[in-house]
Amino acid sequence: MEKIEKFWQWFQDHNEQLVMLNDLDEKDREQLENALQYQLTKYCAGLAYEMGDPTPNGRTLTFTVEGDTDLFRYVVELVDAAPDLDWWEFVAFKQPMGTELKVRFDRYLFDTRKMYFQQLECEEEPDMLGLRIAVEDSKPDDEDFQVGVYVTLEALIGEFDCATLIGYMETVPVPDEPFKAGFQALDDLPKFVDWFKAKRDE
Question: What is the pLDDT of residue 1?
Answer without folding.
Answer: 54
